[in-house]
Each structure stands twice: as C-alpha cells, then as structure tokens.
Design goal:
homodimer, alpha+beta, Alpha-Beta Plaits, 6-stranded mixed sheet, 4-stranded antiparallel sheet, 18 strands
Chain lengths: 472, 472
C-alpha cells in the first residue's frame, strides 16, 4: 500500500501547501477573547479535513475554553494505537510592525512560508494530517490512530487536561506522538526527551486610589511602576540568578551522560548569539552552559508591563496601578504550586511601602523528562537513523508542552516528541516561518510515525526507504 | 457699564454652561495623532465664540503642531494690556473603565460637571471667554485684552513657545493672566507664584534582535523589561530619593518666610492622604513636608512601560525592546538640559549587560518662580481680599505650565496665575470635574482680571462689590 500512498503524497504536494495556507489564514489566537470565533473556525477547518480524508468519529469536543478536535481510525486489531497530538491555536502576532508580510497572509519567500503558526503548530499538525490522508488513500491504516488536537496550547491547555482526566478510558493508546518540537540543526535527527515546566503570573501593584497628576502629586503619591520595577529588580540579580529564596532547592541536575552528550552537539555559542538572539552578549545564570541554562535551569522573564500611559507622546500621570506579566520556567525537582508559593511569599516581603501587591497564577505546567529506554523511542531512533543516516540526538526543550505531562499522568503512555521545526523559525516572534522543504520532507517522514510494526520495535523498513527518497 | 455686564452674565448662566458642555464634547487630545482633527475642531469652536462675542482679529495661527487661537480688543488707550491665556487641548482619558460617565459626554451630578477638560483647562478658559462676552455686551472693554490660547499645553507647548519667540513684538502686553491653576481650598483666595519645571523622557531598552520564545531562549537572551526594571530601581531609592548623581546640586530652597507661610496653610496631611491620594501611606523624599516635596523638590515618576505583551492572558515572549515613560519635575536652580544630561549619563553607567539603552527627551519646561511684589499681583491680592474677605495665600504648583516661563523670557511680563480649580478635581485622571458653582462664581470673579484700572494698582472697586454679589 505504501507505493500508492507515497505516489498520492508526491502528486498532491502543491495542494497540501495551499490547504496549509488556508489553515494559516485563520487568526486562531487563543489568548485574545476577540478571536474566540476564529479559534473555533480553525477547529472546524481541521475537523472538516479529517472527515474529508476518511478519519472516523470526527468531532469537536467542547471544553470550558476552546474546543478539542478528535478523530480516529481503529481497524488494525493487535497493532498499537498511536495518539497523534498537535495544536491549532497560535500566539498573538504583535509587534505587528516587525512582520515583513502580514502574519495571517502566508507568504513564500527564500524557500520559507512566513505566517503566525507556520511552525508552531499548524504546519506541523498539517504534516500529520497529510500523512494520514496519503495512507488512507491506499487503504486502511496499518496501525490504530487517534487524533487529538487542542486550541489552548498557547494559554496553558486547561481544556485538554480536564478532558484527559475525565475521559482517559476513551483514549486508550500505547504512545503519544507529539509533533511540536524542532530539529537541533537542519538534517540532524532529533528527539526531544525533556521539557521545562512553567508558571505564568501577573503581579499587580496598586498605589493611589485613582490616577493622579504627576505634577501635583509627584513627591507624595506612591508610583506603582517604580514600586514594580523595584520588585522585579529584586527577583533576579544583575548576573541572571533568581533571587527568590529556595528557588533552586531540590533541582534534579541532568545526568553526567546527558551533559556529556550535550557537549558534543553541534552548538556554536557565538553563532547562536549572533544569528538567533542577536544581542551584544548572552545573559543568564553564571556557571552553566547555554544549553544547561535554557534546558535544565529555571529562568524568570518579564513579558510586558501593562497599565499607565502607553500611547504616543506624553501623559503626566501617576497611574493608580501597574501590572507585570512574569513567568518562571521550571525544571525537574520543581513544582508549579511550590514555585508560585515561593514567589508570592517573597514578593510580600519586598513590597515597597505605600503600595499593595497581588500575585496571580494565570497558568502552569509541570516539567517533564521522558525516558529514552522505551520501545517507541527506540523505534523512532532506528527510523530516524535509516532516514538521515545519522544517530539521533536527544535534546531537551526549554519551552513547555504541558500536555506531555498529562499524557504520562492520565494515559500512562510515553510521548515521542518528533518535530521538524528549525532553530531559526521565530516561534512566538515576528516572521515565524516554516521551511517549505521541511514541510514536504517532514510530511513524509511522519509516515514513519504511523507505520509502527506490530512488534512496536521498529519502523517498517520499507517506509523508511521511501522517506529517504523524499529527502532529496 | 458693569451693571449691564453683570445682568447679562446672570441671565446667561444656563446657556454658558451648555456652551461649555459642547466645548467639552470635543475630544481634543493633543498627544494622540488620531485626534488631530478634534484638536483643530476645538480651536475653531473657540475662535467662533470669540468672534461671536465681539472680539477682533480672531484667527487660528498655524504652528508645527496644533494651532493657536488669537483674538484682541485694543480700544482703551493708556490702559494696560492683558494677555489672557488658557489651553483648549486635554489629556487622554484612559483608563476609560474608571470613568463613571463617558469622558467626552459632560455629565452633571453632585453639583459638578464631569468631563475630560472640565477644569484643565476648557472650563477655566470658558470662564474668561464668558466674562469677556458679558463685558463686551455692555460696551468697549475698560482695558486692552489679547486672548492667546494653545492646543499643545499637554504635550509641551512647542508651538506657542516658538510663536512667542518669533512674534513677541506683535504681542505687546503688560501682564499675562493665566487661568489654569486652583484654589488651595474652597473659598480660599489663592494665587500661584511658582511652578515646577519638567523633563519628560522615554527610556528605550533593546535586547535581542527580535521577540523570542521565552521557553526556548529564557536563560540566555537578555530581557529588556528586567533590564529596564533594574535601571528604574536605581533611579530612585526605596525612600523616594532620586539617585541620579548631582541631581540636588544647586537647588534654590524656598525662603524661610515662604516655608513659614506654607506651614500656616489649611493642610491636613492625613485628610490629603485619605481623600486625595487614597494610598496606605504617603511616600517621597524623607525630611521634607508634603508641600515642600510637591512644590519645591524635584521628583521622578514612571508613567507607563509600553512594549512586550500587554493583552489579556499569557504570551510567552522575551520582547526585543521595552520602553519606559519617565519624567522629572524640576525646581528653581535646575534646568531641563542639565537634568536630562545627568539622567542620560547616569543611565549609561547603570545599563545592564546584553542590552542597549537610548534616553530621549520628549519635552521639557523650565521651573518658574513669579515675584509677589509686582503691581499686578498686588492688585489681584487686593481684589481677592475684597471678594473673599480673606487674605490671599501664595502657593506654588507642583505641575508645569511651560508658557509662564516663556511669557517672562519672551514678553518680559509677569504672570498672574489665578485659577479656580479645586484640589479634588481629578486633573489628568478619570472623573475629572469642575464644580458648577465654581464656574459661575469664577466666571464673574474673572471680570476682575479684565478691569484693572489705569494705574494698574488695584482692581476697580466697583467691580469687586459686584463680584461679592456673585459669591452667594
């Protein structure tokens, strides 16, 4: 059946790309209430396509927020069941003025498709859908497949977490395939085996009862932005160390073997600084390498400070309140609740006089380390080797995919995090892109994920040959 | 002629208030480019009214920004010429959700008119216009009057400053009457004889080249908001002292007599804290009274910190840049340029690694102390005494009216700052108001300003009697 599937995929490339562009045109920004109808539209777009390609039981599952999209094809008795996960929501596109082409008008240039969601995660989700389509064209799937896609990954994934908790019996499977990560370098087979967790908080400072004229009251009324700056300056020192008492207690360091492996990764710090970050120097906790700092150490970042006057020009106001959006990334050994408690207690001790401070938890996710010794990771590794003719590197991700922890806790299955983004894809930033060639190649590579043999130990050799073919 | 003028004013009160409301309905927010047409509409509204009441040579004077409105009536040879100043632009109304009635739909309740600009400064400007109207109804004005109104007071007054510099010969006058201040307490005759200056700046911090995903880059990429918070925390200490080196050098303290007089003002610090500021404690430089801190000491305030993610919910971004709107209020002995230079040099020395910082001057104004020993201040004092039957108190203002310095430097005339706002009028804040009774009383009080006798030494006794009449 593979020949037919691959022939269909090959003949269908241009159309698949056009479909992806239509998917990318829907501004499914999950965090902005005004885009709620767009998020639903993206869910329906995905469901329609799953229905069209022949998946069964396709439906939107309502949650307290944005809907889940479910589909299955369960006609391979005795074969493993694979839960394919991806998310159809995207980050907000701002700052808009830094996009070279509109974020929701996918534009091809330099061999890339530029659009919000191109790589995170609509492009990667579409690879899975298109692989399923090609296989279904050729006959029943050789394994059992469930598709479960969410529209709240960028806002904490509350809906899917609740659903997994309440409906885990209906989602029986052997492994979760998560397509939301990246290759460490182009053409370097990569599996992600660890993720940082996070807490995303809002720190709100209140001073005077109402906004005041800074001429009349400057010198007597507390300024909440100054107070907030003083608090933030005490959260992290000039060197990048987090100053919250006890924050580093109990952290589980990577194994010596893992650290050794990271040293052999093709990582050029100077190149990374220049081409990816583009700052004069890299910053962060002294005594740790960049990979340790971004994969295995907690960090604290401020994302924005709403409130007060933010228009053009001048307004001489002492705002009544100021807000900071502050997150911490967590590593194994830390929990969201404990970290939040420590942050809140500490802020209470450093609150400047004249203001009151409230620290609110917006969402959180546990850190995850996936073991590398399960048969699915072995199978994926072998498959990658056959395709790339290189050993797979195991990396961690500095970001958080909260669902991976939920799969482990609720479904008791491991996750294979096999993604095809590239390090310079501008996730969450202006000019997010997906390399067009990656889409084509990865679409076909992801066949492998759907073609586990019954013994779960390796990818079907034949499909790998074909994947190799698509690499050119 | 006075009887006729006063009779007209009395019969015309309701209509004058309606006209003011129409003036207040125009959202002439000078700092927001999208309101440029509204600012011009307000200028034309004012010019039309000046024309209608019989002022001459009424015209809009174009500037590099918003237009000036000019009018005159120069038919009292040998009598002094009074330049009546006010501004027709207003501050932005945000935060909108704290207004109890819409900022540009003037609403009467509790004996007040609530609207943006009610007291600052459309209401006060309208008092002058309505006083001129009533006098003109009764015949030629007893003194020479020029009206010069600007639409950029809230954004630094660049246009009027340039015009005064280039056209001072055409604006010959003996005194400037500035109606943009307040009574120290209801029914307490007050003249403002000093104002703080200011520099309004933007501090822009740049880190990475583009916005980055805080999961992937948190721990390696500089965070401009954290850097900006660290800078701001070093501008002002926990006690409220400004930490910019040399900032307090050369400051001219108020005279012992002035300080003594301030002590006898009806000022209850606890009442001020509770009803005006509404914070748990008052803050500011230790060792100085509230009046000294707000009138005679420099202060530093942060008005807002645009940039990054400011929407609802969560976005996990390390912004490429962050901005803070920071102003300093200046007192005699300080100059805007020197203060700005000291700020900029200091910021350069405390810039955290990994980011670059630019400090930009948005606008500035010199501090001013008006002498109390000129005949116009004497006349105003005598007049106030006759009206209120109380001694006038001399206060300073913590705010800045840059034009007062320009009148002194370009026209070589003193300013009489006679305003009728009240301390709780919510200038620059939500629910700005003007006490309706104040409008009526002050409108008539401001007759006094137009009725200097030829010897410039006192207000016309007869008009004062009439003013007294209007106080009931």
């Amino acid at each position: 059946m593979l020949e037919a599937a691959l022939a269909f995929a090959e003949g269908n490339r241009a159309q698949a790309l056009d479909e992806l562009k239509n998917f990318l045109r829907i501004p499914s920004i999950s965090t902005l209430p005004e885009h709620t109808p767009d998020v639903r539209r993206a869910a329906e777009f995905l469901a329609d396509e799953l229905r069209r390609i022949g998946m069964e039981n396709v439906r939107l599952i309502e949650t307290s927020g944005h809907p889940l999209v479910y589909a299955d094809s369960l006609h391979a008795p005795g074969k493993p069941t694979i839960l394919c996960y991806g998310h159809y929501d995207v980050q907000p596109p701002d700052p808009l003025d830094e996009w070279l082409s509109p974020p929701f008008e996918p534009t091809e240039r330099n061999g890339n498709i530029y659009a919000r969601g191109a790589v995170d995660d609509k492009g990667q989700l579409w690879m899975e859908v298109k692989a399923l389509e090609a296989l279904l064209k050729a006959g029943p799937l050789p394994v059992n497949v469930r598709v479960l896609s969410e529209g709240e990954e960028e806002v904490g994934g509350e809906g899917i977490a609740t659903y997994l908790r309440e409906h885990h019996e209906e989602l029986k499977c052997d492994v979760a395939l998560v397509c939301d990560t990246e290759l460490f370098a182009p053409d370097l087979p990569t599996l992600c085996v660890g993720l940082r967790g996070m807490i995303y908080t809002e720190i709100e400072v209140r001073g005077a009862r109402t906004d005041l004229h800074s001429g009349m009251y400057g010198g007597a009324a507390p300024n909440p932005f100054v107070a907030l700056a003083q608090v933030i300056a005490k959260l992290k020192d000039d060197e990048g160390r987090i100053l919250i008492p006890g924050i580093y207690d109990g952290i589980e360091a990577p194994t010596a073997a893992e650290l050794e492996a990271w040293k052999s990764l093709p990582f050029d710090e100077e190149h990374y600084r220049e081409t990816e970050v583009g700052s004069s120097v890299l910053t962060g906790e002294p005594g740790y390498s960049v990979l340790e700092r971004t994969w295995a150490r907690p960090t604290l970042d401020v994302h924005g400070m709403p409130g007060g006057f933010t228009g053009a020009g001048a307004k001489t106001v002492i705002p009544a309140k100021a807000l900071a959006k502050v997150s911490l990334r967590l590593v194994p050994g830390m929990t969201p609740q404990d970290t939040f408690d420590k942050l809140r207690s500490y802020v209470a001790t450093i609150t400047p006089k004249g203001v009151s401070i409230e620290v609110r938890l917006i969402h959180s996710g546990e850190p995850v380390v996936v073991g590398t010794d399960n048969p699915f990771i072995h199978a994926a590794t072998e498959a990658m080797h056959a395709v790339f003719n290189k050993d797979t590197v195991f990396v961690r991700g500095g970001g958080s995919i909260p669902i991976v922890g939920d799969f482990a806790r609720q479904l008791h299955v491991p996750a294979v995090m096999m993604g095809f983004g590239l390090p310079d894809d501008n996730l969450h930033a202006p000019n997010e892109k997906l390399t067009s060639a990656t889409f084509t190649a990865a679409q076909n590579r992801s066949f492998a994920s759907c073609l586990w043999r019954g013994d779960e130990s390796a990818f079907q050799a034949r499909s790998l040959e074909r994947l190799e073919f698509f690499k050119r």
